[in-house]
């Protein structure tokens, strides 16, 4: 079925033309791997989601429709499927909305009486396949329109491509099963024209169109205006403070020169101020160096690795009228990635160093405190590391979902076979890539601060501590979800559990649930060692 889903949209389409004052040119097209047709590597042409738990939910814009039927006992049919040309399917729209994706699931017919469904409406262990929609002139559709798509299965993947929209005037033979048609679905001439117009792309005649493939988390980050505006404000404050300090130093120097050499000679020697050096070593695609370049006399360095990303950043710089060579790529200046943290020049230091502290999965980056220690030695007086410090928060919850997804429970669901003792030896104590906003759970306490990681002032770190948690509701504690507040300074904070966040959350799942009563207190032992966090309940 075709769906509207804001969560899928923000992870697969860049929905803004301006990021913290930086214009994104129309001739730069951002796509996620699931949207990309021509890639160097063979990648799955879809992503997956547990649609019943997607944050914000979804709206079905079409009825369910059958795409294909496959008989795995029919060898001839399987062979023909692999060579069958793409077929076109047209599906009528039943609800007005924004076309974000086509969601696919399967019904597995075991025999004439028994079947399994991976539908989002079923209680199932399977996720659904999601084919994000991209490259439409207008994503809003209405009743009477038809969603058109090409379906193929030529390279072991089910591909749904060239998704477009036709108006109610189109003559469309709808709802055809791809595998039951010998030839391509024939559309009326009006439908072909609608499809062509819907996919018509325009760009500047003198601009070369650039497609930039980003991970879905990188697209979500590009859509996160709070993140970029926060960094812009924090960088402006630091650079403004350093500028004032530099002006005072320059005035002192000028006064000394006038006293020693005379005003006539000193005026003839104009001093060109040195720029402020800003290094962004956050992982993946980032436009923070370009934002830094708008804040005065700044020499920003990006640590992006892929040539495609460098070309894209150069095009964005050019579109925003940056002087050539303003933005530099730091990895071209260092011998290897392991030595990325070093001085900008032998006699210079950094004004700002931006580090990646939290992984998109919700865990702390490996060796982040070691990187922070090196970074502090490379800062000029008054320079800052961003973020300056991070607070980790968590709460106690009762979540049967997390329990069942983390370990095999008993023998009832395994037909009496006692496989739990063996399988559960391999369970992971921390679940990652969680959406706390849609996780089925009952909060049993209010959020509490668990840990402080201070990148600028290491003696304020709390690598080992005990935290008392007040129980607000009776129940069974089964897990401790956690997230972070990243402080760029004491006033500017980024919440990794926020609605616009590109970060996910993580949770410690207890091996044995703990029964608690309202009014009681539990004591948590929190430890941070070598980039790993452990949370245990003191009994």
From TrEMBL:
Entries under InterPro entries matching the protein: Arg_MeTrfase, PRMT_dom, SAM-dependent_MTases_sf
GO biological process: methylation
Organism: Enhydra lutris kenyoni
Sample GO molecular function, one term: protein-arginine N-methyltransferase activity
Protein name: Protein arginine N-methyltransferase 9 isoform X2
PROSITE patterns: SAM_MT_PRMT (PS51678)
Source lineage: Eukaryota, Metazoa, Chordata, Craniata, Vertebrata
Keywords for the protein's UniProt record, in alphabetical order: Acetylation, Methyltransferase, S-adenosyl-L-methionine, Transferase
GO cellular component, one term: nucleus
Ranges of residues in domain Protein arginine N-methyltransferase: 61-155, 444-533
